[in-house]
Amino acid sequence: MARRDSRKIAVAALLGTLMLAGCGGGGNSTFFGGEVPLENFTAEQIYGRGEFELERSKADDAAFYFAEVERLYPYSEWAKRALIMQAYAYHQDKDYENSRSAAQRYIDFYPLDDDAAYAQYLLALSYYDQIDEVGRDQGLTFLALQSLRRVIETYPDSEYARSSVLKFDLAFDHLAAKEMEIGRYYLKRDQFAASVNRFRAVVEDFHTTTHTPEALHRLVEAYLSLGLTDEAQTAGAILGHNFRSTEWYEDSYQLLTNNGLQPRAKGDGWLASIYRQTIKGKWL
């Protein structure tokens, strides 16, 4: 997060905070019983009130005051500080659209500043923190992945890059989970060809996720149901080579042997190609 200039800033702004203490975010401030416009206060005082509102968990009010610093003192150092804090406060208030807007303005205006990495990270979080259920549309997940990748590639040495890598992996896993959910839906309804397409996407595009072993097992199930035994055996062979200790391999092995088959690479389809890459150590 933007550096808050330690407690000295808060102390320095304390008088301004007290003067503004009666304000409810409407643009005017109560000062000894009289109405005093915000224009009468310094940037430092208004910024201090924003920090005060954050301290008491009033993120929406904090965002208002930080925005006022930017509006009233647009070219000041306080405006720059207030802009990143505005993005943070909006995010705390779960106002992701405005958080994203403030973060993007910071990146546009101060691309070389130390806090530009945090602004880009906040922008990514504005998408990432809205990823919740597998069943929802995954457009936000794609946007989160793109934004997190930008943090990783643009600011590789920042602390936010490390956090972004972890979140990127989780978001990537989330997309794979969506493919698995749809694939299982088709499989249960005997729409085997449609289910194969989903499980194939996991194996080919999301093979670094935790869903790959199950996807291979579901391919064994689907291909056996379609009578495509070469593909079923090859999926079982890949599963055995990479995930032999999993329950998914045990289930696939039993399913194949019950049908008089063995997990072995056969044919020349897409799975056979993956199996050859696996043996050569170029896959997973």
Give a concise summary.
The chain has 14 helices and two strands, in the order H-H-E-E-H-H-H-H-H-H-H-H-H-H-H-H.
Q: Spatial order of the strands in the main sheet?
A: 1-2
- Roughly how much helix do the residues carry, as a percent range? 55-70%
Q: Based on helices, strands and strand pairing, what is the structural class?
A: mainly alpha
Please give the largest β-sheet. 2 strands, antiparallel
Annotation field: number of helices: 14
Subcellular location: Cell outer membrane
Keywords: Cell outer membrane, Lipoprotein, Membrane, Palmitate, Signal
Protein name: Outer membrane protein assembly factor BamD
GO cellular component, one term: cell outer membrane
SSE blueprint and pairings:
Layout (H helix, E strand, L loop, with lengths): L5 H7 L1 H6 L8 E4 L2 E4 L5 H13 L3 H14 L4 H16 L3 H14 L6 H13 L10 H16 L4 H30 L3 H14 L6 H15 L2 H15 L3 H12 L11 H10 L5
Antiparallel strand pairs: 1-2
Q: Would you give an account of this structure?
A:
With 284 residues, the protein is an all-alpha fold. The chain contains 14 helices and two strands. The protein has helices at 6-12, 14-19, 43-55, 59-72, 77-92, 96-109, 116-128, 139-154, 159-188, 192-205, 212-226, 229-243, 247-258, 270-279, and strands at residues 28-31, 34-37. Strand 1 (28-31) and strand 2 form a beta hairpin.
